[in-house]
Specification:
With 391 residues, this protein is α+β, with helices and mostly antiparallel strands. The chain contains eleven helices and 17 strands. The strands form three sheets. It has a six-stranded antiparallel beta sheet with strand order 3-2-1-6-5-4, sandwiched between helices. A six-stranded antiparallel beta sheet has the order 7-8-17-16-13-14. A five-stranded antiparallel beta sheet has the order 9-10-11-12-15. Strand 5 and strand 6 form a beta hairpin. This is PP2C family protein-serine/threonine phosphatase.
């Protein structure tokens, strides 16, 4: 059995809370590692938090100002030398199917490090990431490492509902983020990719706190239930509309934008049922994509929804924002969606889609001024690559 197979086997059979110990033992045996550390990105995507049995003992490191953060952001190994200790620190991204989880750092003796070892180490990190996803069903260790502060109950419910921060396939790459990360309540996104389609939803439940979180949970799970039952996009909206109305009788509603991308052709079905908006960056030009607005989910009984169509081309970048983004006002009263959002989308065109939502939300915070945002702010960025002919 080769060493990769042995490490993967050890990770699969280890108790969920001991995965880092398995990797530490492997790095020590095969590469002479003197120290191994695993850090996961916090919910706000500001810092990398150490995975340890007692949370918050080790100081976090900032994503935007550290070697670990460079490895996380670039999704490439970063190597630094400590001349005094004659050692090398290797920082390796831990990423699963495009979802950036964190960074594994190993300190190796200078005379034992070789660049040719990096692919081997990265392979072990990939296996570790897969096992962390499985282990989270049975332990809170990795979930606790992701929080730099206590979550509100509403935010806890929303993060458990979300599919992740990012996702990547040959046909597309997407990233998403929510603020305030530790106190969100109504905004949400969801996605699911099959062999031929990507379904993406961006939603905003009315209200605040736990009431908004419960409302959004109902709507998102109703849309998932309809999608998994094989209903088309309009049918998914209709079933979710009925579920929300049955529970609230029109007293509460959910705004949602539903989209279904054909991975072969780039044809997109869309149902616009409320406030989330869409912008497209194509050939350096930003344009809003408008649809016929239909009623939010749950507003009235027996609402009928209809899908509309548009097409994406390879190289297109789509940006989705909630009303907490485009309606946010500057100190002089200008809405962010009027001009500033287009400038932000153009200014971040060289960033990968995983980094765009955070960059836009940081710019939004500065645009809004010193007063905190008075609503959730959600940004989803999707880069469309298309499917090569014959694939």
């Amino acid at each position: 059995m080769d060493k990769f197979a042995a490490v993967e086997q050890a990770l699969r059979t280890a108790p969920p809370h001991t995965l880092l110990g398995v990797v530490t033992e492997a790095f020590t045996e095969h590469y002479g590692a003197e120290k191994v550390e695993l850090r996961l990105a916090d919910y706000g995507m500001h810092s990398l938090q150490a995975v340890e049995s007692v949370p918050f003992v080790t100081e976090p490191v900032l994503i935007h100002n550290s070697p670990q953060g460079r490895a996380f952001g670039a999704q490439e190994p970063v190597v630094t030398n400590d001349l005094a200790d004659r050692s090398v620190d290797v920082h390796l991204p831990v990423t699963i199917r495009g979802d950036r989880m964190g960074v594994l750092s190993a300190r190796l003796p200078e005379d034992g490090y070789r660049q040719a070892l990096l692919p081997e180490m990265q392979h072990i990190c990939e296996a570790l990431g897969h096992e962390i996803l499985v282990a989270e069903r049975d332990t809170d260790l990795y979930v606790l490492a992701r929080r730099a502060a206590r979550l509100t109950l509403a935010a806890e419910m929303q993060w458990q509902l979300l599919p992740g921060h990012s996702c990547s396939r040959p046909e597309f790459s997407l990233g998403a983020h929510l603020e305030p990360a530790y106190a969100i309540f109504g905004d949400n996104y969801d996605w699911s990719a099959s062999a031929d389609h990507l379904t993406l939803t961006v939603s905003n439940g009315m209200g605040q706190g736990i009431h908004a979180a419960l409302l959004t949970n109902l709507a998102v799970n109703a849309m998932r239930n309809a999608r998994r039952a094989g209903l088309d996009l309009a049918g998914q909206a209709t079933l979710a509309d009925q579920a929300v109305y049955a529970q609230y009788q029109g007293r509460a509603h959910v705004s949602v934008l539903l989209l279904r991308f054909n991975l072969s052709t780039g044809d997109v079905e869309a149902v616009d049922a409320g406030s989330p908006r869409l912008w497209r960056l194509r050939d350096g030009t930003v344009d809003p994509i408008s649809f016929d607005e239909q009623l939010p989910l749950g507003m009235f009984e027996d609402t009928v929804y209809a899908a509309q169509h548009f097409t994406v081309r390879p190289g297109d970048r789509l940006l989705f924002g909630s009303d907490g983004v485009y309606d946010a006002a500057s100190p002089v009263g200008e809405r962010y969606g009027e001009r500033a959002l287009a400038r932000s989308l153009t200014g971040t065109r060289l960033l990968p889609p995983t980094q765009v939502p955070g960059a836009v939300l940081r710019e939004l915070a500065g645009y809004h001024g010193e007063t905190p945002l008075d609503d959730d702010a959600l940004v989803v960025c999707l880069d469309w690559n298309g499917r090569p002919d014959g694939a």
